[in-house]
Amino acid sequence: MSRGLAPARPAVAGALASAYLSLVVLLPLAAVAARATDGGVGAFWHAVTAPEGRAAIELTVALAAIVVVINALAGTLIAWVLVRDEFPGKRLVNAIIDLPFALPTIVAGLTLLALYGPKGPLGVDVAFTRVGVGLALLFVTLPFVVRSVQPVLMELDREAEEAAASLGARPLTVFRRIVLPSLRPAIASGCGLAFARALGEFGSVVLLSGNIPFRTEVASVFVFGRVESDDVHAAAAVSVVLLAVSLALLLGIGLATSWRDRRVR
Amino acid sequence: MSARTSRLGLRTVALGYLAALLVAPVGMVFYRAFEHGFAAAWHAVTTPDALHAFWLTVLMVAIAVPANAVFGVGAALVIVRGRFRGRALLGALIDLPFAVSPVVVGLALILVYGRDGWLGGWLTDHGIRVIFSTPGIALATIFVSLPFVAREVVPVLREIGTDQEQAAHTLGASGWQTFWRVTLPAIRWGLAYGVILTTARALGEFGAVSVVSGKLAGQTQTLTLFVEDRFQSFDLTGAYAAAVVLAALAVAVIGVLTLLDRRRAP
């Protein structure tokens, strides 16, 4: 039935697409895994648990976790305001939510430094601190939760909320007992995406972190430093940890989403 | 607390957060760039190195966007319409670049295409230089912007179904004719959306490019690398002015996406 449908030979198209993907993406990633483990599991483990690399991984995970919690709150709030509130300029606000996705990461870092850096007009200086790194991560991960919660909130049936309210439930109770349970999967998947992004973020962080080992050096900055100083093995080992965690996250989100879709149908 | 005050309160907190995190910092960069007048900013982004960086970035977009558009449409057709084993796997693997840190992308490319990489010996023998040269930057740009077109086109293909394609086929159209006359027009908005996202990502890539480029001013420096270089060399006007060029492009991208959204939603 699908024979003759565009483009002519599906098998050839499939083979070409797979070859392209392999040369650009799969082969290089395989090379990272191979390089990380070519001295054996012991050498891999040693590289990952060496003090500086380990500190970088721990700081990255901790910052990503904090950033995700803030995103869950702020993102849900922003989505709520964009769906349920009416005010002049709402469409403009809705459009700028995507700005962090469109803005180059190095520019994102520079903008934060311009306002919250040493020469900023406010007198606050977060340059070369963990707060600065966290701020950069908040900037680049802002859209994930908002964009994941917003469509669910739009589709939500408001009858149950109105019924609860007419029975005397207070707004906060209505939100917690009726709205929040429906939003929870969307918040979780937005958080997962934000966490994966925060783990690997580099461009926005590099100017703000100052790359101080054990203080502000996150995993991506550590990997960059090791590549520059030709310690490719340590770079590859920490990269594999990053890859494994974000892959597991994205896979988990994908599975959860398809499982939920199947149940809804 | 009345419903009205709590609504105002929530709105204030949400908008305040956006203002502090997004609007004010971006506004500050625009202010700083033009602080010493428009001429100074213009001068900073028209130096030979700046112009070279700009055109190198344009070249990278011109390579990555068509390559990933063709791949994305082809892969989407294979994933949605194909019948070969492993198409589900292909669908899952396409998203892989989103899970990879840009720095890891750069490292991965060095390990395959670098001097000591898997293909390094062969490339050196044939006099081909990939890493620390333009082909490496192109590969990095293609890697990070690879999934966008396929991701946008796959759902559209699922949505339109195969009725029209089959009708065209029954009427005697060849596979290519069906593709050009029926399928492509049907997916055009999804494709356009994907192309814009690919362009934005290709323009703005920093980490992956930073690892593989070697960062030679006037040679392998893209516009994002130029921003970093100017900042590190304490040429703040240059850094801010180039950042404004990139930010203006980002704002343009958002504008086009908003327009496309309105087109797509019937």
Could you list some keywords that capture this structure?
heterodimer, A: 265 residues, MetI-like fold, 79% helix, 0% strand, disordered N terminus, B: MetI-like fold, 13 helices
What does this structure look like?
The complex is a heterodimer of chains A (265) and B (266). Chain A is an all-alpha fold. Chain A folds into 2 domains: 1-37, no CATH class; 40-264, MetI-like (MetI-like fold, Orthogonal Bundle), CATH 1.10.3720.10. Helix content of chain A is 79%, strand content 0%. Chain A has 12 helices and no strands. The longest helix of chain A is centred in the N-terminal third of the chain and has 34 residues, at 51-84. Chain B is mostly helical and 266 residues long. Chain B has a single domain, classed as MetI-like (MetI-like fold, Orthogonal Bundle). Helices cover 78% and strands 0% of the residues of chain B. Chain B has 13 helices and no strands. Chain B has helices at residues 3-33, 38-44, 48-81, 87-94, 102-113, 120-125, 134-144, 147-160, 163-170, 175-204, 207-213, 223-232, 236-264. The longest helix of chain B is centred in the N-terminal third of the chain and has 34 residues, at 48-81. Classes of the chains: A mainly alpha (265), B mainly alpha (266). Chains A and B meet through α1, α3, α4, α5 and α6 of A and α1, α3, α4, α5 and α7 of B.
Short description:
The complex is a heterodimer of chains A (265) and B (266). Chain A is mostly helical and 265 residues long. Chain A contains 12 helices and no strands.
Q: What is the CA-CA span between the terminal residues of chain B? A: 40 Å
The value of Rg of chain B in angstroms is 22 Å
- Please estimate the helix content of chain A: over 70%
Q: Main beta sheet of chain B, described? A: none
The best one-word shape of chain A is: globular
SSE inventory with pairings:
The complex is a heterodimer of chains A (about 260) and B (about 270).
Chain A: H1 10-37, H2 40-49, H3 51-84, H4 90-96, H5 99-102, H6 105-116, H7 130-155, H8 159-166, H9 171-200, H10 203-209, H11 219-228, H12 232-264
Chain B: H1 3-33, H2 38-44, H3 48-81, H4 87-94, H5 102-113, H6 120-125, H7 134-144, H8 147-160, H9 163-170, H10 175-204, H11 207-213, H12 223-232, H13 236-264
Helix pairs in contact in B: 1-13, 2-13, 3-4, 3-7, 3-8, 3-10, 3-12, 5-7, 5-11, 7-11, 8-10, 9-10, 10-13, 12-13
